[in-house]
Amino acid sequence: MQPEHPFRIGVLGSGKGSNFVAIAEAIAAGTVRATVAAVFSDVADAGILRQARDRGLPAEHLPAGKFRTKLDEEAEALYVRRLREARVDVVALAGFMRVLKGDFLRAFPLRIVNIHPSLLPAFPGLEAWKQALQYGVKVTGCTVHFVDEGVDSGPIIGQEAVPVLPGDTAASLHERIQQAERRLYPAVVGALAEGRVRVSGRQVTGL
Ligand code: GRF
User: Does the C-beta of 41 come closer than 6 Å to ligand 1?
Assistant: First the structure.
């Protein structure tokens, strides 16, 4: 059972849900004082839905509609409605493979956060760990940021650096970054839940 806290998060994901699990475990352990109000996925058999249901948390598949990389108009309205019904304070994207557009963003201004597997603004977009490896950087990491109209371009809340080691493969580097994600994302959700995060333009403090 999750403890009930007034700060409610909605989680959107398309994949296995390891970031969601890290957040849910931090809540269950009492280190993050928030409630998972809802988990939604555009993928019917996504691991994130199973992980939520295994923990007795509300989880639902919401189809994304006719496009491949974004929500269609009907789906967007459905996601916004469900998140509002769940009375979420913050929407946490955890591997949600759809770009969110204007109406969705305007429904939750400065209340949508995302985790990205690089030290932004380096390597936005897909498979950022492969981009980092190919470029030859010695340090990469992960970033939690507010979501804006661009791709991985919103104000940065927190980052954790990860070394690129000799002999790293895409898989080994990705795993090291994901370990950092599982520390960073719960810490950011905790800071948001405690009301510590302040935003002024691109400057974000409080983590
Ligand atoms: C994470 O690595 C995150 O950086 C990216 O999507 C991945 C989701 O993984 N945005 P998981 O579903 O949380 O395991």
Answer: no
Say yes or no: domain 114-207 is CATH 3.40.50.170: yes
Contacts of 109 (CB under 8 A, 6+ apart): none
- Residue range 1-109 forms a domain whose CATH class is alpha beta
State pLDDT tens for residues 80-134. Answer: 999 999 999 999 999 999 999 999 999 999 999 999 999 999 999 999 999 999 9
Domain pair 1-109 / 114-207, same fold: yes
Residue nearest atom 10 of ligand 1, based on CA coordinates: 95
User: Which residues form the catalytic set?
Assistant: 116
Report domain extents, the chain: 1-109, 114-207
Q: How far apart are CA 115 and CA 96, in angstroms?
A: 10
Q: Is the pTM of the predicted complex or chain greater than 0.70? A: yes
Listed residue (202, 203, 123, 207) closest to 170, CA to CA: 123
Question: Alpha-carbon distance 195 to 30, whole Å?
Answer: 16
Ligand 1 midpoint to CA 114 (Å): 9
